Amino acid sequence: MAGRLHTEILTALGATPAVIDPKHQDLPASLRSFPHQVSDLPQAVAAGIDLWSICCPTAEHLPVLRAVLAHNPAARVLMEKPACRGHEIVAFTRLLADHPAARIVVNDQYRHSTVLPAFTDLITTLEPGAPLEKVSVLFTKDRRPDSARGRFVDRDYGVLGYEWLYMLAVTRHILPAPHGSTTWPAIRPPPQPNRSTTRACSSPP
Q1: Helix or strand or coil: residue 118?
Q2: How many Å apart are CA 89 and CA 79, to the nearest integer?
Q3: Which tens digits make up the pLDDT trace of 63-83?
Q4: Rounded to an integer, what distance in angstroms lies between the CA atom of residue 24 and that of residue 137?
Q5: Bigger pLDDT: 81 vs 89
Q6: Confidence class of residue 186 from pLDDT cuts 50, 70 and 90?
Q7: By C-alpha distance, which of 112, 9, 99 is closest to 55?
Q8: In sequence order, which residues have a C-beta less than 8 Å from that of residue 143 and are 6 or more positions away?
Q9: Which of 67, 51, 32, 60 is nearest to 103 (CA)?
Q10: Which residue has the higher pLDDT, 25 or 82?
Q11: Quick one: 10 exposed, middle or buried, by C-beta within 10 A (0-12, 13-18, 19+)?
């Protein structure tokens, strides 16, 4: 899904995407596609790529990024989150350190959403100075059909699938500093933040 979305956006901006996908036969015929691995991409093709977009399953992120940087140590890369699995964080960090000229951006659309600032501005307007007593972030989409097809199944972090990352991004924006990123003065943090708790739960519809 993310790969197709990136392709549509980049094409609309005037770019000429080249897609590397084992299921290349399912792609529109208008796209230039390659059925093999990134590591097998012809060097002449790799040399002409200005931006790499990594939208494969998380377990493949690190190997694909290694292959990209082998083609171009100064590559510009857009990567879907999470960047890697938990046990790969050290290797991922080392790979970045070994390629200081590279630029990797991990996509986090909820963190950069315009809806969250609009929400906190609304609170500031309607409840100026109100204490922050409880934050509840609910995602109501039924992901069971997706999970049955193997999508959004998290066997690494164990935190409600990938939705948890979105929920944390929302929570981080709402909470005032230093517990979150928000600096708006109209919301006061809890009087004893060290006693605050975070709970994750999943309820069937």
Answers
A1: helix
A2: 15
A3: 999 999 999 999 999 998 888
A4: 38
A5: 89
A6: very low
A7: 9
A8: 152, 161, 163
A9: 51
A10: 82
A11: middle
Question: How many angstroms separate the CA atoms of 31 and 22, rounded?
Answer: 14
Look at the block and give the residue holding tokens 């790979």.
Answer: 95
Tallying the residues shown for the chain, one arrives at: 205
Taking the C-alpha atoms of residue 151 and residue 162, their distance in angstroms, rounded to an integer, is 10
Q: Where are the alpha helices (DSSP H) in 58-181?
A: 61-71, 89-97, 115-126, 144-148, 163-174
pLDDT at 184 over 90: no
Helix (H, G, I), strand (E, B) or coil at 71: helix
Closest by alpha carbon to 187, among 133, 137, 136, 138?
A: 133
Q: Within 13 Å, how many C-alpha atoms sit on residue 99's CB side? A: 21
C-alpha 93/C-alpha 45 separation (Å) is 27
Q: Locate the DSSP E strands across the chain.
A: 18-20, 32-34, 52-54, 76-79, 103-106
Report CA Rg, the chain.
Answer: 20
